[in-house]
Amino acid sequence: MAVARSLRRTSPITFVLASLLAIGFLVFLLSPSPSESTSSSARQRQEDAAENPLSPPTKPFKKATSLRKDGRVAPPPVEHYALNKLTSTSNPIANDERVLILTPLARFYQEYWDNLAKLNYPHELISLGFITPKTREGDAATAALQSAIAATQSGPIDNRFASVTILRQDFDPPIVSQNEKERHKISNQKVRRESMSRARNSLLFTTLGPSTSWVLWLDADIVETPSTLIQDLARHDRPILVPNCYQRFYDPNSKKMSVRPYDFNSWQDSETSLELASKMDPDEILLEGYEEMPTFRTLMAHLNEPSGDPDTIMELDGVGGTALMVKAEVHRHGAMFPAFAFYHLVETEGFAKMARRLGYFCWGLPNYLVYHYNE
Ligand code: GDP
Ligand code: MN
C-alpha cells in the first residue's frame, strides 16, 4: 500500500480512504452470517458483493480471503464495468437499476429512518450515503444513525440495504446553530448554502459508483413520502425531477392539522429575477423566499392543487434538494452543487443551472407531495 502511505498527510484522500474502510467494516459487520446465506436471496447478494474494500460502495463488500501460494493476500481483482449497458429507465425494478440515496444529515429523526425503511423499492438495489457535520450535534446524529442502521441491517434480509456509507465532514460548518430561525436568516444564506454544497459534493463524489443508475437526494428531515417514491419519480423518465415539499402543521384557526408549502427552491425564472441577476456583482447570489429580495419567480410550492393529478409535470429553472431524483449520468457528466455563485445561484439551484448548461432539463411535480419535519 505504498500509494496510501505517501498520501497519508493529504487530508481529503485520507478521509476518503478512511471512510471507505469504515464502510467496508460496517458492511462486513452487518453482512449475513454464513448460516443465513443458504437462502437464494442471500446467496445472490453474496455473489453480487464487491471483492475489495476499495471497490465502489454501491455494492456490498465481501471480505477478501483469497491467499496466494506464498501465503500473502492476493491483489485486488480488476473489475470491468460496462457503463453503456447501465440504464436509468421508467421501469427501474424490471431493469435492476441501482439507486443511491444521499442524505446530508445534521440531525437524526426516527421518522426519516422509518419512512426510508418503508420504501418498497427492492432494498438490495438501494445503497445509502450520509454525510454528518463534525459538531457535537453531528456526533449525536451519527450515533443515532448508526444504531438505526445496525437494527435494519441485522433484521429481515429483504429489509437490508445493499450498502451504507457514512462520511464525517472534513470542514467546519459556518453556523453551528441548527435552529430554524437562525438557519433561514438571509445574512446566513450564502455561507450556509455554500457549505451545504461542499457537503453534498463530498458525499456524491465519494459514493457514486459505476453501477449507480439513479441518485435520490433526500434530506434527513423528510419524514413522510409515498412508499413508492422511487418508482413514482423514475416512471416520469426525466433527468432531474423534484416533488413538491410541504409541511404538516396544526392550524389554530380551523383547529385541525393542515399542510403548507415548505421548500421554495423549485421555481421558474421571471423577467425580474433575470434582470436582478444581470445587475449583480459576480459573487452575489439570488435567494428565493425572502421579502427583502422579491424575484417574482413562479414557485412550484404555490402551484399545488390538493385534488389535482399527481402526474402533472412542469419545467423548472431552479430545484430544491429536500427530495430530488437525478439520473446518475447527470452527475457523472459533471453536474454538481456549486459552492460559489454560478450564474448567481448556489447549491441545488446552481445544480439545476449547471445541469441545464450540460443539456439536461429540470422538472417538478406540483401535485406530488413529500413532507418536511415541523420543528
Ligand atoms: P432547510 O430545511 O432548508 O432549512 O435545510 P436544513 O437545515 O434542513 O438542511 C438540509 C439538510 O442538510 C438536512 O438533511 C440537514 O440535516 C442537513 N444539514 C444541515 N446542515 C448541515 C451541515 O452543516 N452538514 C451536513 N453534513 N448536513 C447538514
Ligand atoms: Mn430541512
TrEMBL record:
Which locations, inside or outside the cell, does it occupy?
Answer: Golgi apparatus membrane
Cite a single GO MF annotation.
Answer: alpha-1,6-mannosyltransferase activity
Report residue spans for region: Disordered: 37-76
Q: Does the keyword Transmembrane helix apply?
A: yes
In terms of Pfam families, this protein maps to: Anp1
- Bilayer-crossing residues are none
Q: Name one GO biological process term.
A: cell wall mannoprotein biosynthetic process
The yes or no answer to whether the keyword Coiled coil is present is no
Which is a Gene Ontology cellular component entry for this protein? mannan polymerase complex
Q: Please give the chief subcellular localization of this protein.
A: Golgi
Under the heading SUPFAM superfamilies, the entry gives: Nucleotide-diphospho-sugar transferases
Q: Which UniProt keywords apply?
A: Golgi apparatus, Membrane, Signal-anchor, Transmembrane, Transmembrane helix
| Entry membrane topology | Single-pass type II membrane protein
* Record family assignment: Belongs to the ANP1/MMN9/VAN1 family.
Give the protein's recorded name. Answer: Uncharacterized protein
Organism the protein comes from: Elaphomyces granulatus
